Amino acid sequence: MAVTAAYTRAVVVEKQANPSTEYFVLPALKAMGCRVERRGFDDLPPADSLAGALVVLVRYAPSGWVELLSRVRPQLGGLVFFMDDDVLDVSASRGVRLKYRWRLWKLAARRKGWLQRHRAGLWVSTPYLQQKYAAWNPTLTLPAALPPEVDDTTALRRIFYHGTASHAAEIRWLQGVILPLLDREPRLHFEITGSGEVVRRYARHPRVAVIHPMPWPAYLGFTALAGRHVGLAPQLPSAFNAARSHTKFFDITRSGAVGVYAADSACAAVVEHGQDGLLVPMDPAAWAEAIATLAFDDAGRARMLAHAQRKAEALSHG
């Protein structure tokens, strides 16, 4: 992409963090040497703060920004609309769900005339879009590969908790352990099963994967996939939990991981601390420390996994 205009500051307007911004817009602005400020649809800045800035609308032109930019357009350094789908032509989305087409019209297609009246530049992602909108003299903006989260991806560790609706209390309790731990340790990722409340509690974190509940045969195949390191089995005291068995030990071991188990849980009856898992009191700080230590102790984890696999085999045969 060749951009000759000199800008020192860009304001990127996006619905939320998204691949369009990450793959196309940010690399282009970085190549231009711009300092970037990212804002959501409702995150409107003071009008005078936009003076001299390049404002880039990613895919959509929401009403609040349209009103603001209409007032301050003469003070802007520049205005650009970026699209990586044909969002300005509703007819191009025939066959797509009506609700989505309505959103395209409301946030993009009906703004085409407004964009042109306010002399917005057009950045597009493909030669097809460049040719279709040739009268607008669009700039072809090619994607760039994203840098890895960490320099060495082999340093990443996956923690997981596969609970069900009957583990709601433990899911709530773990939130206070896992989210601060992820914030502190960028090499950790967390996988949890659930929907609804689980999504609301956990999915905001970029290194949490919320897995939708699945039938048992599918779950067996899913947990056979490699790449899990530490499994969690918290257990809070309750009449319901008093009747639980130690099947979490089998689930975690079958996944190729080593478990952190509640010290007073059903699993404590079969797990030997430090030999085939860790038994930890239900204290958030103690759990965070145990998880982090176990996740990065590769030799110790391999030794404990071997013991756990032998024990699981022995328990299965009485």
Automatic annotation (TrEMBL):
Keywords: Plasmid
Protein name, per record: Uncharacterized protein
